[in-house]
Design goal:
Lipocalin, 7-stranded antiparallel beta sheet, globular, secreted
């Protein structure tokens, strides 16, 4: 079974720590990114999310948002699924959308990556 709680590292060396997974699937934690829009030093940012409990034999899906605290005017939403290979290694696969604040509706086209 895949457990989301704990420390995770991605292929960009960013770190995510999920501190608690509640019985209803809600979780929270911190995300320390190594990739920033400004190129500056990153800080740990809060994350909140939920895990959908799978039916028998399935792997859990999840979603969470990160509010980039103190260094960016952006929010990112992640969705993904957790898998366990034959050797017991847990892997999270995710897709994300980042929304950066823009100054006007005319600039809306460039606000989401």
């Amino acid at each position: 079974q895949c457990q989301l709680s704990g420390l995770w590292r991605n292929d960009q060396d960013s770190l995510m720590e999920i501190s608690e997974l509640r019985n209803n699937g809600d979780f929270q934690g911190k995300y320390l990114t190594r990739v920033t829009l400004s190129g500056g030093c990153a800080h740990a940012s809060p994350l909140k999310g939920a895990q959908q409990q799978p039916s028998e034999g399935g792997w859990p899906t999840f979603a969470f948002t990160v509010h980039w605290d103190k260094f960016s005017n952006a929010t990112t939403a992640f969705v993904g699924q957790c898998f366990v290979d034959a050797g017991g290694k847990e892997t999270l696969t995710t897709m994300w959308l980042l929304r950066e604040a823009v100054g006007s509706l005319k600039e809306d086209w460039k606000a989401t990556r």
